[in-house]
Predict the structure.
Amino acid sequence: DAGVTQSPTHLIKTRGQQVTLRCSPKSGHDTVSWYQQALGQGPQFIFQYYEEEERQRGNFPDRFSGHQFPNYSSELNVNALLLGDSALYLCASSGRVTGSMNTEAFFGQGTRLTVV
Amino acid sequence: AQSVAQPEDQVNVAEGNPLTVKCTYSVSGNPYLFWYVQYPNRGLQFLLKYITGDNLVKGSYGFEAEFNKSQTSFHLKKPSALVSDSALYFCAVRDMVYKLSFGAGTTVTVRA
C-alpha cells in the first residue's frame, strides 16, 4: 500500500502564475482533503472532496479550487499566485463520509510551494 | 466552531524522562481528537485518536493520551522519551465530515 502520494514534492512559481498540485489517496479511501501549512503554523483546512464534489470549504479565496476524479485522486489549483501562498500543501485521505467515524486521516508528504 | 489549543510552543526534556504535550479542545458535541507528529520537511504521521471509550488511549511508538472531559483536555504522554521523539506535535479535533482543525503545534526536543 503506497499510502497517500503527492506530486510534485517541490515547486517554484512566480507571482501571478497558476499551479496545479496532485494527490492520490490511500487505497480504500474516497475522501480527499487539502490543507495549507505556512511556516511555523499548523495546517489550515482548504477544502474537501467526496464523490467528485466539494463538500466543505475553509476560509480560502476562490483562487483556490479543486477537482476529484472518478478514481478518487484529486487536484488543487491555485490561480494568480501571491507571495503569501508559499507554504507546504498537504493532502489527506480518509474513509467514506457516511461510514465509520473511527478512521483517521492519512497525510501525504506534501508539496512545498515557493512563490517568488 | 471546533478548535484546539496547544499552550506550549516548545517542550524540552532529557532522554529517559517522561514527556507530556498539552492540548485543550472546544467542541459543541462529542469530540473526535487526534495527535499527529511531523518530522522536518515531512507530512503528518498519525499517533493516536480518541473517538469514544476508555479515557486512556494508547498509540504508536509508545505514546498515549488521556482524555479528560471535565477539563476538556487531551494531553499526549510518553513515560520515557527518546532522542528520536524530537519533532513537531499537533493536536487536532475533527468534525462529522472529516475536517480537521489543528493546534499551532508544539516542538519537542529530547536531549541526550
About this structure: The two ends of chain B are 41 Å apart (CA to CA). The first strand of chain B starts at residue 3 and ends at 5. Chain B has no helices and twelve strands. The domain at 3-111 of chain B is CATH 2.60.40.10 (Immunoglobulin-like).
